[in-house]
# Entry
Amino acid sequence: MNKQSNTYTVIYIILLVAVVGTAMALTALALKPQQKANADADKMKQILASIKITQDKADILNAFDQYITDQYIVDSKGQKVENDIKAFDVNVAEESKKEAADRLLPVYESTVDGAKKFIIPVYGAGLWGPIWGYVAFNDDLNTVYGAYFSHQGETPGLGAEIAKPEFGAKFIGKQIFKDGEFKSIAVVKAGNKPLDDEDYIDGVSGGTITSKGVDSMLRNCLSAYQEFFKSKQ
# Structure
């Protein structure tokens, strides 16, 4: 075949693309189990952070098994859902977009210093992308024991501040029920107060939209668990 011809060039490019594409596909397939393991470990680390447990990656599996004593799924009526999906595998991002009555709601139980804690995942939208987190409650399922938040692309020094432990620590001791009525926890601009009678924290200075995203995320996600919370109180 004439190596200077257009036909040769086209065939060469097609073969090259096929070889490179196959190699990349095989590499991605080989790395997939490790990628999932890394993602799972990171998720475990975030869940544990909500109950103030920090652990090295090498020990994260043991720590998760030690502190997370149970995990299950409930529905909007507070009833356990029996299916083949584990709480850990529920796509909270997708569930948060559904009507509350149609959601699968993961719950993680933990024992810290002999006291039971309940960890609830939350997911929402910030300024530039998704935000998410885990809120841990004492066994009264009303008072916050700890909280962890993260984001995909919020502005460094502004909205990204929600990922700092200092932000999550603001929620400790706040309550989501007042006189038996669900209220959530408001995130407001520093110096302001919510219109409703509810606990609140100051939002991130300069991160107004991200702060509002956290506020909406908590209301949307935690409200779906109302009946579950009430059934344990």
